[in-house]
């Protein structure tokens, strides 16, 4: 993989970089937690989401797809979401287990991406399940930013857990197909993964702080 310095100044990549820095005022407003601040928080978050959509559109429209952009786009998403959710845990009572599972999944994605990069010589691109998971967590974050309570929050938290599971399986399939070409070995890993998932879900239900 080769990255040229000028690629940092491509519009899509600049938009991705801007999403990293935009988390600074977002974190401050999450901590502030005032009605007026929450509306500013919503506006800045929407602007950040718009840049996420624009960078992909512009890169394809203007033929500016680069390996740097393929790395920067999900990296900006991960950094932004990590900072936002840390703020929500500290100041808005966001469920800790949900963030813990998200970080664990992202660590697995990084490892799978490293395997794919080593074996195929190119980074692993985000799939539809990963993008859906990002969108669900972004919406959930907005609900916490606006201090929404009740059944709406509960439903979206459970949807977030399900999206984590679906996206984890999708990325695991991609990584295992590269790491373990043998169908027998992949089947063994999937059995272990299934048993581990059942064990984790069974034990999580005993913790009242899951929500």
Topology readout:
Elements (H helix, E strand, L loop, with lengths): L10 H11 L1 H10 L2 H27 L5 H26 L3 H25 L7 H18 L5 H29 L3 H22 L7
Helix pairs in contact: 1-3, 1-4, 2-3, 2-4, 4-5, 4-6, 5-7, 6-7
Structure write-up:
The chain has 211 residues and is mainly alpha-helical. The chain folds into two domains: 1-92; 94-211, no CATH class. It has eight helices and no strands. It has helices at residues 11-21, 23-32, 35-61, 67-92, 96-120, 128-145, 151-179, 183-204. Helix 2 (23-32) packs parallel to helix 4 and helix 4 (67-92) runs antiparallel to helix 5. The longest helix has 29 residues, at 151-179. The protein is flat, with a radius of gyration of 18 Å. The N and C termini lie far apart (42 Å). 24% of the residues are buried. The mean pLDDT is 79.
Number of helices: 8
Tell me the number of structural domains. Answer: 2
Strand content: under 5%
Helix content: over 70%
